[in-house]
Amino acid sequence: MSDTTAPASPSAPSRHLIEGPIATSLVSLAVPIVLANVLQSAYQLTDAFWVGRLGGDAVAAVAVSFPVTFLLIALGAGLAIAGSTLVAQYYGAGQPRMVNHVAAQTLLMVATTSAVLGGIAWALAPAILRLMGVAPAVFAGALQFMRVSYVGLVFVFGFVMIEALLRGVGSVKPTMAIVLGTVLLNVLLDPLFIFGWGPMPAFGVAGAAMATVATQSLAALAGLALLTTGRLGIHLRARDFIPDRVFIARAVRLGFPGSIEQSTRGLGITVLTFLIASFGTVTVAAYGVGASILGFVFIPAMGLSMATAALVGQNIGAGRIERAAAIARLSAIISFAALSVLGAVIFIGAAPLVRFFVPADPRVVEAGAAFLRIVAPSFGFIGLQLALTGVFRAAGNMVVAMALALISQWVIQFPLAYILSRHTGLGAEGLWWSFPVSNVLVALGALAWFQRGDWKTARLTEDDREVAAVSNEILIEEGYRP
C-alpha cells in the first residue's frame, strides 16, 4: 500500500510557477529549454562536420534521410504535445496520481508508435530512396544511415517525450544536463564510428547514425531513470503502464491535430523547396543559407513557446486563468520584441552573415542577403505567432494550432510564392516575399483568436467524465478518497 496522503498542490520547488513573479517564472523555464534546443542542434552540426570528411556522396546520403525522419517525428509529435499539456494541467490542479498515470500512458503510446513507425520505415527505406530518385553512388550509404536511424527511433521519440513531460511539471534543468552530456559524447563517438580506430572498424556514413542512436539511447534511459525516482514531479510505477483505453483514446484525440500541424509544416517546406529549386542553384543555395540562419532564430522563439505552454498549462490547471492570460501577454510581448531586435540586426548584417557561410560565391551572397533583408523585418511576428500557439496548446486547443499551420503553409505562403515568382516581375524575390506576408497575416490571425478568449474556458482536468472516473479509480486504488 502506498502513502495515504496526496499532495493537494504542486511541489514546493515549482510553486513559483503558479504563484511567483510571472517574468521570473517564464525566464526560469525558457532559458534551460533554449539552451537544450541549442545543444540538440549540435547533433546535426557534428554529423555534418565529420560526414563532410567522407565526401559529397556521404553528405548527400545523410541529407536525403532528413525529410523522411522529420516526417516520422512529426507524426509522433502530437503525442508529446498532448502528454505535456495534460501533465501541466493535472500538475497545476494538484492531482499527482493523474500526473503519473498520464506520463506512463503517454510513454507507453510513444514506445508503441515509434516501434511501429520505425519498423515500417526500415522496411520501406529502399522504396523511399528509389522514389526520391537517389543517385546510385548515394543509395547504399543513405540506406545504411536511414535503417540505423529507424532502429533507434524509439529512443529518439522516448527522450523527446521525457523532455516534454518534465517540461510540463516545470523540471527542465535535468534534461538540459542530459543533452549536454550526450552531445559531448556524440562528438567523441562520431569520428570513432565513422572512421574507426584500433579494433573498431570504420562504418562510414552508418557510423554517424550509430553514434546518434547510442547517445540518444543513453539519454532516454537516463531520463527514464529520473522519472522512476519521483523527485522531479513525476513518479513512474509499473502499474501505471497497464494500458488504459479511455485515456489512450483521449490522448489520440487531443494529439492528432498536433501531429497534423507538424506534418503540415514539414510537407509545406518540402513542396516549397521544389518550387525554389526550379530557379536554379544560386537560389537554392541562397535559401539554404537563409534557412540555416532562420533555424537559429527559431531556437529562442520555440524555447519561449514551450515555456509558455508549460506555464500557462499549469496555471489553467490550478484555476488561475487571469494569471495564465498575463503570462500569455508577457510572453507574446517579449517574443515579438526580442525577435524584432534580432531581425533588425540580421537585416543590417545580412551580407556578412551569408558571406560567412559561402565566402567564395558573390552571387549566393547577394541572393542570400536579399532573402534575409526581405524576411528579417517579420521575425517579430514569428515570435508572436509561436508564443500564442504555445497558449493554445496549453489550453488543449490543438485544432487552432493546426488551423494556423494549414492556413500559413497552404492558403497563404505556397500559393503566394508561386504567384509572385511565376506571374510577376519579381522572379526569385517573389519566393522570399511569401515569407513575411504569411508571417504577418498568420500572427495577426493568432492574435485575433487569442483576443476572443475561448482558450480561457478549456480545463482538460475537468472536461471529460470518463477520465475523471479513471482518476477516481486510481485514487481509490492508492488508498485516497476522491
Average pLDDT level: 83
Unreliable stretches, pLDDT < 50, 5 or more residues? 1-13, 463-482
In terms of quaternary structure, the protein is: single chain
Q: What gap, in angstroms, lies between the N and C termini?
A: 17 Å
Q: Which word captures the global form?
A: globular
- The residue fraction in helices comes out at over 70%
Topology as H/E string?
Answer: HHHHHHHHHHHHHHHHHH
Rg, Å, rounded:
23 Å
Model description:
- α6 runs parallel beside α9 and α13 packs across α14.
- This protein has 18 helices and no strands.
- It has 2 domains: 237 residues, no CATH class; 226 residues, no CATH class.
- The N terminus and C terminus are likely disordered.
- The relative contact order is 0.12.
- The chain is mostly helical and 482 residues long.
SSE layout:
Layout: H1 16-19, H2 22-51, H3 56-63, H4 66-92, H5 96-131, H6 136-151, H7 153-168, H8 173-195, H9 205-229, H10 245-277, H11 281-317, H12 321-348, H13 350-357, H14 362-375, H15 379-394, H16 398-422, H17 428-452, H18 465-477
Observed structural traits:
482 residues; mainly alpha; 2 domains; 18 helices
Summary of the model, kept short:
With 482 residues, the protein is mostly helical. 80% of the residues lie in helices and 0% in strands. The protein folds into two domains: 7-243, no CATH class; 257-482, no CATH class.
